[in-house]
Amino acid sequence: MSASPGARGDLAPRIDVVSIFPGYLDALDLSLVGKARESGLVDIAVHDLRDVTTDRHRTVDDSPFGGGAGMVMRPDVWWSAIEATGRRPARAGATVAGASTEGVDADPREVVLLVPTPSGARLTQPDAHALAREASAGDVRYVLACGRYEGIDARVTERAAGDPTIRRVQEFSIGDYVLNGGEVAALVLLEAVVRLLPGVLGNPESIAEESFEGDGILEYPVYTRPALWEGLAVPEVLTSGNHGAVERWRRERALERTARRRPDLLPPLTVTELSRRDLAALAVEGVEPGRHGRLIGPVRVRRAEPADAALVADLAAMTFPLACPDSATLADVRRHIAEHLSVQVFTDYLRDPGEVVLLAYDDAHAALGYALVHLDGRGADAPAFEGRLAELSKCYVLPRAQGTGCAAELMRAVLRAAADAGADAVWLGVNAQNVNALRYYRRHGFEPVGERTYQVGAAEHHDHVLLRTLPRGVAE
Ligand code: JD8
Question: Measured in angstroms, how far is the CA atom of residue 152 from the centroid of ligand 1?
Fold first, then answer.
């Protein structure tokens, strides 16, 4: 590491925490962080913000400009405190806050100002690793500014961002809920970062198996003695002594948990980095490789609302051309999309109680496919049928989701919606050349009952008409 002017390799990673409730940080004396401090692996100092105040009431806040509830923390007080963290008592007897610089050491390292705030970027494990790496590099120190009240005057971070001794201002949040101050978030960051500093964890290898490490999935379930507790036995494989089997079981459980609890963690995984066993474990949870080499699923289907009109129209414009026969001209297709698949057309469908628009999606994709069901299916080309008919007018899935369970999930929702609306059967028209679609509908119980012509732009196309009945009260 090239020694930048601020680098003092001999200095332990330094973190100064400033708060009006310094006692909140006493937890840092305990457990792993406490031991790391005792063994000099990290140098954490906690400061009371009020120590830099100069008035009799040790005031740190004032009323908000622009009105509103609560109080705001003063910029001048905060800046004094941040600056004060850089001054060290040279030797015994000198105090930092408000004292003259005589006998006070200035910490040579650049500052990274860490500010917990609900409006910050969510803190992640990769962030914790980056902060631990940076702190171990020896040329920066951290100042954690724990606000209270309605927050800290915004000019503090503005001033800091322009200050040459401050390398970066990092505003972070620990989650989408509101706390009363930054102290708890500071404790979260400190524990997450300090445990990653060299020498702190007794067995750093254990990190690799933790949640959000490696490929970022959740950790597997853990067990210890007694092997039988309250009638609950430890999974046999864990007492089998077969390490390969244990490792495979743990991987499957980790993937299973991630698919069920945190499917939002799956998209970063590329299919190529997953083994056949991984994919099999994920498939059980409805997660499959899409055409785009990323994972799709678990797929869910919801009834679209008027606010989804543009999203559905987009899907329709992207998928309709793919199902069109080769003989359809681009002009025909464009005209058809403009006339029959516009945002306005879908807005009208979405406002019509006789129309059901269903959207298939997963955590990574707001829309993977859609279907349109006319609950009154007695349209012009409707086949003869005793009983209530619904028409499946549109059923499309984006290419990336083809070959996954998405289309089947969408069809299940279509049949459920038709049955719930009291239909006895569903019919549809499908282009006679669209063999994939034909196979898909036949697989879901649709049988050919007739033919029809279908207009796309100026051209007429030949459709098969298919129908399937819905057993009373039960959708597939
Ligand atoms: C810092 C003051 C309280 C917040 C008015 C309630 C982080 N994930 C998180 N939730 N809340 C915080 C957080 C809350 C803080 C401060 C962090 C300083 N408050 C304020 C705005 C609304 N009160 C946080 N990280």
Answer: 10
